[in-house]
Amino acid sequence: MASKNINVDFALIKKLADKHTDAMISFLRDIVAIPSFSAGEKAVALRIKKEMLKVGFEKVFIDDYGSVIGRIGKGSPCLVYDGHIDTVGVADPKAWAFDPFKGKVENGFVWGRGASDNKAAPVVQIYGLKILKELLGKKFPGTVYVVGSVQEEACDGLALGHALQHSIKQKADAVVLGECTGCAIYRGHRGRMEILVSTSGVSSHASAPERGVNAVYKMAPIIKEIEELNNRLKSDPFLDKGTIAVTKIECDTDSINCVPYACRIYIDRRLTKGETKALAISQIKKLPSAKGAKVEVLKFDDPSYTGKTLVTEKYYPTWVLPERHKLVQSAAAAYRSLFNCDPKIDKWTFSTNGISSMGQLGIPTIGFGPSEERFAHTNQDKCAIEDLRIACAFYAALPLFVE
Ligand SMILES: [Zn+2]
């Protein structure tokens, strides 16, 4: 694949990524040291905005939902790099052998909450584009936006989808997610849903349960049938099997000596290729014991730190880009030009913002991220410094290959 007839020395891109390693480490340490749980990303967004302006982004702004967005270049194609800037919490600081908000550097890694998931993404994306702009100046190919999206851990896809539809005025031709891939090219993952099933009953004194209708007893066979349904769900050679699991149960009762009048279970459903919202809901409704139960998709309506609320169903569609798709092949060509070997091409186990860019909006999407999925959401949260160099070079080279 040609690199748009622009003469670029790929060895020089790698050399520049090496040269900027110290700056990337220090930027990553800075943003790891700013806690940014979902709906609390304002300070980290401002810090990232400052870095974008410092390295020469041409336009930088924070949108009405709170995501930080920077642009380099103009015209087409329009590429969007995304990395989410919120993190999960730190429930038990004592479970950590180090301060999760210090950004310590040790054994070739930067350590801390969000170092892997996903604060290293904006770092490599911003520095990659800095390198390409320095090399090409006015010959910079097309437009590239970097989105530091908020609220991903709370509701994947919501902030990126909003940015793509409302904040970025240009139509995106392709999206690249910086979620951890261990510097492989990822091209999809299973979708997911959060479902609520409710049964209702009639309360009575527990000393005479036959006078009431126990909502928990109505739920019990449904739970058993959901467990069995999991074994029957379809599989896909690339994405693996769809799954269903009851993850929470609660009931309403006036006291311990009353028959409960309402019961609810919460369900995590993972959707493989070909499994849709309608299918997943009908499978539960068709369970013999679920007759008369209410089955619904949960809603997300938490406001972001700007106070803006975007209401959405907790349905996150499955997406897969075929390996032969030109975006996957362009990314593979960029990788080969830099590293003289074939990249690994795979999928995520977890869910990402790709559910909106590709799953809902149909924009071709791939992933390439520093660090590995297995460190995400753990007390071993870290990013290899070597991955910063590799991913920075990749993000610098990619716009030369995307048409
Ligand atoms: Zn993530």
SSE diagram, text form:
Blueprint (H helix, E strand, L loop, with lengths): L9 H10 L1 H12 L9 H13 L4 E4 L5 E6 L4 E7 L20 E2 L2 E3 L3 H22 L6 E7 L8 H10 L6 E4 L7 E2 L1 E2 L1 E10 L14 H18 L10 E10 L9 E10 L5 H9 L8 E4 L1 E2 L11 E2 L1 E2 L2 E2 L5 H14 L5 E2 L7 H4 L7 E3 L14 E3 H13 L6
Helix pairs in contact: 1-10, 2-4, 4-10
The structure holds zinc ion (ZN).
Structure description:
- The chain has 403 residues and is an alpha+beta fold.
- The protein is elongated.
- It folds into two domains: 263 residues, 3-Layer(aba) Sandwich (Aminopeptidase); 107 residues, Alpha-Beta Plaits (2-Layer Sandwich), CATH 3.30.70.360.
- It starts with 9 loop residues before the first helix and ends in a 6-residue tail after the last helix.
- Strand 1 and strand 2 form a beta hairpin.
- The mean pLDDT is 97.
- It has ten helices and 20 strands.
- It binds zinc ion.
- Zinc ion (ZN) binds next to helix 4.
